[in-house]
Amino acid sequence: METTFSPASMxxxxxxxxxxxxxxxxxxxRELPSTGILREMLRRMLTVRLFEESAVSIHSAAKMxxxxxxxxxxxxxxxxxxxxxxxxxxxxxxxxxHGHPIAKGAEIGPLMAELLGKATGICRGKGGSMHLADFSxxxxxxxxxxxxxxxxxxxxxxxxxxxxTEQVCLCFFGDGAANCGAFHESLNxxxxxxxxxxxxxxxxxxxxxxxxxxxxxxxxxxxxxxAYSIPGIIVDGQDVLAVYSAVSVATExxxxxxxxxxxxxxxxxxxxxxxxxxxxxxxxxxxAEVEYWRTRDPITLFSRVLRESGRxxxxxxxxxxxxxQEQVDxxxxxxxxxxxxxxxALLEDIFI
Amino acid sequence: MSDVTYIEAVVQAVCxxxxxxxxxxxxxxxxxxxxxxxxLQEFGRERIFNTPISEAGFIGxxxxxxxxxxxxxxxxxxxxxxxxxxxxxxxxxxxxxxxFGGQTxxxxxxxxxxxxxxxAAAHHSDRPWGLFAQVPGxxxxxxxxxxxxxGLVTSAIRDGNPVLCFHDMGLLGQRADxxxxxxxxxxxxxxxxxxxxxxTIVSLAACVSNSLDAAAILERQRISAEVVDLRSVxxxxxxxxxxxxxxxxxxxxxxPAPRTCGIASEVIATVSESAFDSLKAPVIRLxxxxxxxxxxxxxxxxxxxxxxxxxxxxxxxxxxxx
Lengths: 352, 322
What we know:
Number of strands of chain B: 14
Largest interface: A-B, 47 and 41 residues
Distance between the termini of chain B: 47 Å
Shape of chain A: globular
Oligomer: heterodimer
Low-confidence stretches of chain B: none
Structural class of chain B: alpha/beta
Shape of chain B: globular
Order of helices and strands of chain B: EHEHEHEHHEHEHEEEEHEEHEHEHH
Strand content of chain B: 15-25%
CATH superfamily of chain A: Thiamin diphosphate (ThDP)-binding fold, Pyr/PP domains
Strand order of the largest sheet of chain B: 3-2-4-5-7-6-12
Order of helices and strands of chain A: HHEHHHEHEEEHEHEHHH
Number of strands of chain A: 7
Largest sheet of chain A: 5 strands, parallel
């Protein structure tokens, strides 16, 4: 997909990696991509949202095994980043990445079946919520270990360059991962080898339940880019267009052999660190803070932009929402009706 | 055929695979000035990467390259350096194929030198094949000759799965005639180095030559020892071990690694489960004690199975011969 943005309309990128945020509500959507792309952005954000809400509902009814970490509230970051990529580009995910394969174009039936541990799951029921992968859309996998996939993203970038494919790897990570050694080693390697990698931080302000300022030496993860002499960009992670534009610039830099970038999206998760069926962590954030971020809901904000610019009517939005809900419901039905893995699968897929 | 050292055979294997397969490349610390200094001119810096001291970073990058169609060979230098990349090896290299339901494989080769009996002290001297054998999804080879080193490394690069190649530092200067072109030695196949009828000595790495020296001494004492060189730790060639023990009825396992939950334990458990009725005497294992490696050579030399200790253990095993 080609971006319709020109560099002049982009968020500012400093040559020395020092971050600053020029985006304000005034220039919320200065230059828009085609209406088709805009509607696809909204459709994918809705798909991610409704998919995760369905997962929460099934989990809370004790019908879904294991840990479930949702990114409800972070959809603009996920979708804006993925839609800035080409279909053959790669992504790597985190433990909180149900939406990332969806945003990259994966079918949702096998993803939901994976969350239920079924044979038809995208990973044949062996990965589960924290370890989705869909190689058919360039989703190279997610990791239950924070920061652990970051070096693999560097290797995917190296591989793309060695094979001469012009592919880019977009590495999702959270603010918590920015304090892992793997973060440092990955950014340094990508920088010294000038690799086509975009490090994309979904900064939701909390590593599990611990706020950023307690764990992190800088308020902005993007500031750390300067340590590797690469650009560091901060975007409003609730603004899908801001994310899309910043990642578009970063991927084109990468494709033009100008090296890696770090894009930090300031975002927020509405739900707890993971679904725990009523067993809540001790309070670690104010209800008012959650409510404030709900007023900046990425789907509400973007729907308003599309409505006000005449690109989407209320009827269109309702139709889109109900269509997506039907697709998610169909995915749930598919997953529920699927058989569990055959016992023989236990010993399969260890070696080729 | 060329007369080469063990380490030259290893580098030959990697270089020949780089010639044959554009997906193969090599990464590691100081490669341009050490192992691959000669190869650099032929392959260049885009096939032979000098890395920073970032084991998690470059082993993880190798995994990412392997996930996307390349065949990286990572030179990790001393085997304890692998621990800096433990998460990458255990959580990513070993588990990705299984966890992602067979959508992918991780064809990465990770090579490390196993240095011991060299006054290198605890941080450079581990023999960690048993430790990594606890990780499902990794293959592990431990060659004991230049011929096997070249053949096993070639197999490892072509295997398609993550393979750890541990090279015993004590063997690196050993010379032998090996074929110039590449050939394979199958992973998972042990070698019977010496045939015998009174006991089976199962060994690996440089302990194989100690076991063969011991067998020569034992022969003069009219004890006929069979020596099995494991060559691979994972998969373990249980068939060759069992076949030998069923014939000899006695088992001695010689491993320079620590004792608890080591490969010696696994060999003995295998025999206990499947050839117990063949045993004529209790099995014996000779390993290092469960201690870190001390610096003082006087202390360290007490750790590893010597020829004399192997001979004594074999004599004890055979003492009750009817």
